[in-house]
Amino acid sequence: MKIEDKKRVLREMVLHRRFEERCYQAYIERKIGGFLHLYPGQEACCNGVMEAARPGHDYVITGYRDHVHAIKCGAEPKEVMAELYGKETGSSKGRGGSMHIFDAGKRFMGGYALVGGPFPLAAGIAKAIQLKGGDEIAICFLGDAANNQGTFHETLNMAALWKLPVLFVCENNLYGIGTSIERSTAVVHQHKRVAAYNIPADECDGQDIEIVYEHARKAVDHVRAGNGPFFLELMTYRYRGHSMSDSRGYRSREEEELWKQRDPIFILRDRLIAEKAITMAEFEAIEKETDAYIENEVIKFAEESPEPRVEDLEKYVLADRDTQLPWLTGKAA
Amino acid sequence: MANIMYWEAIQRAHDEEMARDPLVICMGEDIGVAGGTYKATKGLYEKYGPLRVMDTPISEGGFTGLAVGASFLGVRPIVEIMSVNFAWLAMDQMFNSAAKVRYMSGGQLTAPCVFRSAGGAAHQLGAQHSARMEKVFMGIAGLRVVTPSNPKQAYGLLKSAIRCDDPVFINEHELMYNMKGEVPDGEYFHPLEGSEIARAGTDVTLFGYNISVHWCLKAAEILDKQYGISAEVVDLYSLAPLDRAGIKASVSKTHRAVIAEEDEAPVGVGSEVIAIINEECFFELDAAPVRVHSALVPQPYNHTLEKATIPDHEDVVKAVLKMFGKA
Known about the structure:
A: six-stranded parallel sheet; 13 helices; about 10% strand; B: alpha/beta; Rossmann fold; 2 domains; seven-stranded mixed sheet; five-stranded mixed sheet; 12 helices; about 35% helix
């Protein structure tokens, strides 16, 4: 990665971290409802892969831990926060919530809350790309636990069979909700499981963005060149529980501390400092600026935005009636 | 007007829409090289090729989800679920993805998919190949459900479903694919909403859909000829949404209602129609509405037991006669 890119990504990763931590606070204050799944600890995964891909051009789909993926694709942080606040200005107009962030204009095709549900959707997006003949690829980010759903196997089979341009990124954070991978999964190394479908796969450290980037570049190039699907496993860790109701009783504080020694932001920061590209003071300034931006623009926007109107409760259930009338009434021209 | 079979009508709708729009594709088990279990996609593979006529693995959840994902980018997939019994495996993607994506994305994404499936009980196919499942589909926000009772509807409903931006589930019937009927020679779009009067009458309304429309028509004939009762038959080809206005109009005229369904009674089409009658025209009623329906059992294999499970036109006649105090 170029120095300028690394500096930019460091700033983005700080935003991603502080955004999520601010969500935690807003949840405690009951400004955010429902379920909230936070991303701290895994930032190098999404950022490393998307640096190798083309955000806004390639299609991205993921599960419910989706805020950072949406923002990385180009969604406005204030609109994502307004969605968490359930506001009309939210990215899904307050109808989706934390688990259903969408930004179709930026080709972020959404967060979905059924574990493993996005696998076939991603293959379908790739199928549409194949039919239309574009150079985009579909990227599906999911956790390791999703691989125990039937959709994983069904989708890998179809993607390989039809050589679909889809990259599966497995963010292996070692836990499926509160069950460790050793206790839920017969084959712990996820990239080994896709060999059954003749899909090339790779595995690497998911904490060091430069390592993720190097592996992701090969994966993205493979898919974009028309060679069919690729599976990339990134070894990572989520600092917080699965969701806000999780007290992390299933793992030790020592294990958490060990992973925090390899924090993705600090790894990149310390490297840039060693390379004399930034100073610690500059990094601290980035953190301060980020916090100020989140308070003054992101939170303020979410706080001040209007609620959806109750009169619009049924809007968006079906397509706009007026445009569908020929088919609903049979009076097509 | 051409007199063609139900399967030919479905095939023609596929063919016309695929010729018109390169983003219309179809997929399912054995639909390509083999031409489809019910021939509904016969000849399409040869004409449009494997990229657009996709023989899928036996992975209902997987390929249904793949169709939904493709539809996000404007592809119009027609998915054939070989038997509606297998649709249970695809419902997560139909309900959680296709039906909800528009709402939970605040209108940004839409899933213009068509899911076709052979429903109904055929002959001695046993518990896992004989289900009637329309009631499962008709209560899902964001999903339209239609069910053709003749070739004209089979053709026109599929044409409209492909064009419509909403996901549509089309409930066909295993025993109806060889039924013949008149289909317009020119392009025809059947309305996805509403109902139609299949036979006009004045004394009682017989509500049916799909195969039960034919029981009702036969029953109406018998009631007229043998008992002097004039029955109106209303074809509820749209199960979601149900046609409130049509139900109200007919019952307000005849003041009596019998609902015939091949599905089991609980939480079904009949329950819903009676609820609508209660809400819309309770004081127009001269008798309590009655349901004619299947027994609530996993479909038995034995021929005699199977016959005892599924109602027919005679059960409709009996229900009407009882309502008129003649039985």
